[in-house]
Amino acid sequence: MSHSRWKTLRQRKLAEGLTEPEDVAEARREIRLSMALAKAVYDRRAELGLTQTELADRAGLSQAKISRIEGSDTVPTLPLLAKLATALDATLNIALDDNDTRVTFTAHHTDAA
């Protein structure tokens, strides 16, 4: 079954009043948060024109670790998030709500072109 067909089927079932098991809903929330962080790290790294290796060097991490973060394959600790924010010369902002997760990096300085 294709992803779009599965998604349509899921939406139809939810519209009919069927609910997901709580563990499935929780897993979906965790994935959304991980993906939001991955996108924020990638976007800020790209904005700075850094490679994964350069970001890893700045943060004192391995390139593989940066790849796992950007691939949503890991759940970073708070100290690791602090290292990333420092390496990206930005403040990490995380807004968590029931159905809305926003993760952004706000630059400390105007990036000179």
From TrEMBL:
Residues 1-12 have a biased composition (Basic residues). It comes from the Bacteria. Pfam families: HTH_3. Residues 41-95 form the HTH cro/C1-type domain. InterPro entries: Cro/C1-type_HTH, Lambda_DNA-bd_dom_sf. This is Helix-turn-helix domain-containing protein. Residues 1-21 are annotated as: Disordered.
